[in-house]
Q: What sequence folds into this?
């Protein structure tokens, strides 16, 4: 009798140990199929399915969007700036992409009207003193201070002079 009781206790202990190993992720459920129908594992399977779905949904949101080429004619028709009957050239744009495309189109219009400079035009008219250009390429701090003094002039600190303000 004692031996049978010890064997039963040992079997129960072993089953509990396997449950803990499975729940801890150290052992697969397929290694102990006789306890696969236990309510704890049924709930665990359902929870894992839900968690996996949530994980996939988050991963889908984090995937970078494929850049869509914007058809300006189509964009104009969708924004009401111009009406066209040609429905074949339309692609689906979400609101964010449509807004971005509209802003690009407005910038293009302002450039054509001369209200905004292109990058090339800006580079032509932008003046930068040679010493300032040289300052951008200097690597050491001492050289930066030396060039800064050449550009601005020496910095004079007057400790005796009181601040007025």
A:
């Amino acid at each position: 009798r004692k031996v049978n009781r010890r064997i039963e206790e040992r079997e129960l202990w072993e089953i509990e140990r396997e449950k803990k190993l499975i729940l801890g992720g150290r052992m697969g459920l397929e290694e102990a199929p006789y306890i696969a129908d236990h309510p704890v594992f049924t709930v665990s399977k359902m929870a894992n399915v839900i968690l996996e779905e949530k994980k996939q949904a988050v991963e889908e949101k984090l995937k970078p969007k494929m850049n869509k080429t914007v058809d300006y004619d189509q964009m104009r028709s969708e924004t009401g700036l111009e009406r066209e009957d040609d429905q074949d050239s339309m692609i689906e744009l979400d609101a964010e992409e449509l807004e971005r495309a509209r802003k690009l189109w407005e910038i293009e219009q302002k450039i054509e009207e001369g209200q905004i400079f292109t990058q090339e035009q800006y580079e032509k008219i932008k003046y930068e003193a040679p010493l300032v250009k040289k300052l951008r390429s200097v690597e050491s701090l001492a050289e930066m201070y030396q060039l800064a003094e050449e550009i601005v002039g020496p910095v004079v600190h007057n400790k005796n002079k009181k601040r007025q303000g």
